[in-house]
Structure formats: C-alpha cells, structure tokens
Automatic annotation (TrEMBL):
Top-level taxon in the UniProt lineage: Eukaryota
Keywords from the named record: Oxidoreductase
Record Pfam families: GFO_IDH_MocA (PF01408), GFO_IDH_MocA_C (PF02894)
Residue span(s) of domain Gfo/Idh/MocA-like oxidoreductase C-terminal: 153-371
UniProt xrefs under PANTHER family: CONSERVED EXPRESSED OXIDOREDUCTASE (EUROFUNG), CONSERVED EXPRESSED OXIDOREDUCTASE (EUROFUNG)-RELATED
MF-aspect GO terms: nucleotide binding; oxidoreductase activity
Family in the record: Belongs to the Gfo/Idh/MocA family.
Protein name per UniProt: NAD(P)-binding protein
Residues annotated as domain Gfo/Idh/MocA-like oxidoreductase N-terminal: 7-125
Amino acid sequence: MALSPIKTCVLGVGLAGLTFHVPFVLALPELFTLTAVLERNPQNPGGKVQQRFGVTTKIHRTVEEVVNDPEIELVIVGTPNDTHYPFAKAALEAGKHVLVDKPVTETVKEANELAAIAKEKGLVLYGYQNRRWDSDHLALKRLLSLPSSSPLSLGNLLEFESHYDRYRAGIRSSWKDSAGAVYDLGSHLLDQALKLFGRPAQITAFIQNIRGVTKPEVDDIFTIYLHYNPGTLFPNQFTVLLRSHILSVKSPQLRYAVRGTKGMFTKYGLDTQEEQLKAMSSVSSILEPSYGLEPESIYGIVENIADDGATITKTTWPSDAPGQYIGLFKNLAGAIRNNEELEVKWAETTQVIEMIELAYKSSAAGRTLEVSKV
C-alpha cells in the first residue's frame, strides 16, 4: 500500500525557501504535499509561492500558527540563522519532523538540545547539507575512491584545498550579509571536508572583514586549516585548507586543488544546480536529464607524475554524474515514512557548528587550537 505524501510547511519564502526547498517539495508530489508556507507579509492572496510557481497553498503569518496546524507533519526551516533554533524547537515540541537549513544552529549547545527533543519524541531531525550532492563533489569522491593501482590515483593525499570564492564589492539587501561568511559558505566547506576525512587533530583559522561594508565583526573572508596527524588517514601529515574570498577576480573561480604523492586534481567553476533552480520556469525541470549537469568546460583535470619523476600526464576528470539535491529530499521522505538511515546525520551537522565555533576562537586568539577526540 502506497504511503500518503508528507504534509509539509516551508518557513520562509526568500532565497532558501523559493530556490532550495519549495521546488523539490513540488517536484515530488508522491512524497510531499506543500500544505503551507510561512510568509509574514504576503503582497497578494497567493503570496510568493503562487507568484513564482502558480501554486496555491495555505499561508501562515506566524510560527505559532504553523506549530498549531494539525495538518502539518514536516516543517522546513529556511529562515535567517538566528531563528533556526527557536523555530526548529517549536516545531519539534509540537510533534513535527524538521529539516533545518544550514547552519543548523548558531551553537553546539542549541544543536544538542534539538537532538535531545527529537530523540525523546521519535522525530526526524535533518540538517540541510545539500552540497554533498553537488556534481563536482560527487566527481571528487569518485576520484578519491580509486585504488592506488589506478594510473589516475593521486596517491596518499598531502593537501586538500576547497574554495567558495566570489567577487562582490558591495552588500546585498539580504540577511546573509549580516550572518558572516563562515556560517554561510563555511558550513558547506566544513561539512564536505569532515564527511570525507573525519575530525582533525587541530584547527587554525583566519577570519576577517576585508571590505568594511558591514559591521566589523561580520566576516566576509576566511581561511580555515584542518590539521590531521600522520597515520590517522595517510602515512604523512595531511592538511585541509578551506577558503572563501569575497573580492576574488577570477572566472571561473577555483573550486578544488587536491595534492597527492602521485598526482593533483584541479577543478574550476561551481555546480550548476543553484542557477538552474533560480531560472527554471517549471519545477518539472528538476526531473529532466539536463538538470544538474556541468558543462564540459569546467570539468576537473587530473595530473599524474610518471615513474621517471618528471613526465606529467594530464587527464580530464568529468563531473559526469549530475548534481542531485533531490536525493536529500528522497532520503528525508524515506526516513520519515520508512525509517531509512539519514544520509546527513544530525551529529555530523552538529560537528560542523563545533568547528565553526573553534574557528572563531582560533582566529580571535591568533593560534592553532586542539580539537577534542570523540
């Protein structure tokens, strides 16, 4: 017997709600029903969802209305960072499953409190780390999984460099510019790195406001080093470098630079899904074969050193598996309806917040900090 679609409410109809959440809820009618949205000041009877997608849904103006709506089973939190904890807590306490956009909370303490409530009530609590389904990240994972005998193997990794750079001299009319780059883009970079390599031994961070166009304490660039001791992953010292620069004049921007004892992987340009989601005229585009495909012009390059220690062979490494944020939503539905294992575990998203807190402490203190063992 087919299970009924999950009755869903999306909190917030800004960039997160209209780009990353509502389209997937609508594109998977067998799994979800868009029962309501939170929109505090709709400018027309149907609100932004009807204006953008031609769909009519219930509009709640307050979180209290949402949590008191008995129809709603799942709440997706796509509002500003400082509301994630109180909104998610209210939804969980009302007996609703919750998907929280990144960063899931502002502190580890808050993340742990939400986990305790979800566990007590037997509810699904899921962190929206969608960039695990980027096309270039999937291609990178495939490369790193090659056996050492492969001629394209990078060998033992020495350094993993991951970037989200851009050029933006001014600020946008968005709350994101007051949230800070580490909580925004750093959440993605840290999640990908921690999922690939696990907990580091130490962390060193340099966090700044370079433009001076927002409050001095609101960072717009960062460099975060994760240090791994020899023998934990590889025989050698291994370093992860995570970087975001707001005044980077480059097109396309550097995305990955991975150095190993036998080769190097270099990748420029970003996954295409965000731009496709912003531009699509119909959510059915998500299900088309062209969705999430990268142009060949930004495929990565693998360079391998020959046995002579001098000859270098260059090989294109394609991002041939399309990016698929839809995989996160399918897994979320499976967890709610069929008790499937979460592909993004709450403990993993909590660890991201832990590293963010340590990064700010490291930068403020001007020194490398130890990361406690679990």
